[in-house]
Design brief:
Blueprint (H helix, E strand, L loop, with lengths): L5 E5 L36 E3 L4 E4 L10 E3 L2 E3 L2 E5 L6 E5 L7 E10 L4 E10 L6 H4 L7 E3 L4 E3 L13 E5 L4 E5 L5 E5 L8 E9 L5 E10 L2 H9 L6 H7 L9 E4 L4 E3 L10 E4 L11 E5 L6 E5 L8 E9 L5 E12 L4 H4 L1 E3 L3 E4 L4 E3 L2 E3 L5 E3 L9 E4 L6 E4 L9 E9 L5 E11 L5 H4 L50
Amino acid sequence: MKLQRTAIAIAGTAAMFVGGIVSPHAIAQEATTQMQDPLSTLSWPTARVVPGSTVQIAPNDTFPTNVRLEGEDENIGYRLTTNPRTGIVTIQVSEDVSPGEVARFYVTATDGFRTHDYPVTVQTVTFLGEMAHKHEGYYEPLFTNGTPAIGRLLTSEVELPEGTHFEATAPDELRVNVDADGTLTVEPLKQLPIGWNTEVAVKATFPDGSFYVQGAPVVVVSDETAARIKKSDPFFRSKDEAYAERFQPRWEKVYFAGDEQAVSTFVGHAPKGTTFTLREDLEPFALGVADIKLDPHTGEVTFSPKRPIKQLRDFSIPIQMAYPDGRVGIADAVFSVTTPGKWLSEKADLTYEELEVPTPGPFTSKPTGSWPEGTVFSEPEFKEPGWTTTVDAKTGEVSLTPPERTTPGKTVTVPVTAKFSDGSRRIEMAVFELIMPENPEADSAKITFPDVTVRAGETIEVDPEGLPEGAKLTFGYFDNPGMNMRILPVVDCR
C-alpha cells in the first residue's frame, strides 16, 4: 500500500474556541508524476467536524471512470478512509482532539500510468453552527446590597434568533433567573459581606447548535454605594469604583511551552479553613485542551495539556476563593503558551545516514540520534521486488538482503515508521547505495582457458579453469564469420 502523509497545523480560532495544537509526524512518499487535466483540478472542500464525530467529504469535481483513488491513514486521533471509485473521504475524529486543530491528509489518484496527490483538509471546531459568533454578548457587573440586581445581555445584534435558549448557574448563595432574551436577575439568599463577589455562568444555546458561555460579575456593595449607583451620582465614579473595591484574589501568571505541565500558585495568605473551587461552568472549553487540577486548600492550579498546544495564547482558568470569615472572590489563573508544543515525533533526534554499501550484501543500517524510550519501529509498508527487509522493533536497525547477483550502482530506499508513546509517528528513510565490493573477486580471480585446435565442421567444449563458484561468463568481443560460440550453463551432476 502506498504510504500516505498526514500534517497538522494550527488554525486561527474565535474567542470561544480552545487553543489549537499540532503536528503529528513527518513525511511519507509523494507521487512524482504530475497528472494532466482533468485530474489536475480535482479537489476536496475543507470540512468542519466536532470532536468525537465523523465527516464525509466528496470531491468538488468529477473524474474519469478509469481513475482510482486511494487514501488510508490513522494517526493521533484521526482515521482516514477513501472510497476508490467515488472519491468520498471519510474522516473519524476522536473525542480528545481539541477544537482549533486543522488536519491535512493526502489522497492519491491514479489511472494506471500517472499518479497525483491531493490534499484533504478537516478543521475541528467546538460546534458546527455560526450563530454563537454572530450573536455573542456580555454582561456589565451587577451590584447588589441584598436586593435583586438585574443585568441585560449586551450584544451588537438587535434581535436574537428565535429558539435561542439561556441557562444560568451560580454559587449556592445566590438565586438566579435568566429570561428568554438573556436578561439576568440575581438575588442573595442571605446577608453577604461587602466586597463579596463571584460570576454567574450564562450559557446561550442557538438553534443551529452553537453556543457560548459568558460570565456575569456580581458584587455585593453597601446600601450607600447601591443608592449612588442607582442615582448615577455625578461625583461618584459609580460602577467602576464599586467594582474595583471588590475582594480580589490573585494567582501567579505562568508562561510555559505547549507540551509541558504548568503550575500556577495563589499569591497571598490563605488562612486555615480557606477553600478554593474550580469554576468549570465558566470555562468549559479549556477542559477540552488540558487536564486541570486544583488543590482546594492551597489554591495551586496544575494545567496539563492533553495534546501539544501549538497556538500561542492565554488560558484563563476561573477560581473562586472563600475565606473562613465569609468573604468570597473570583479571579483567573492565567496560563500563557509562549512556545509551541511539540509531539515526541517532532522532538526526537532520529535519522538514518545514507550508506554506501559494497555488494553482495546483506546490509544493515542503524538509526542515529536520540529518541524517547518506548519508541517502536515498524517494517516498511512496501518492499522492493526480490529484496528482503526487516526492521528491529526496539532498535530500529534495518536489515536488507538483495537478490542474488545484484550488481553495484543501484540505490534502495527503505521507509521506516517510528511510533512514539504519545501516539505520534514519523517516517524516516534508510538509504542504501550499492557500490563495488571492497575486495572484488574479479581482481583476484585467475580464469584461463586451454588452447585448443578446432577443425572445420567440428564442435568442441572448453572448460574454464579457476572460475569462482557463482561467477557468470559473458562474451566480451568475438567477430569471426566462420565460427559460432556460445556459453553453456553449469550443470550440477552430483
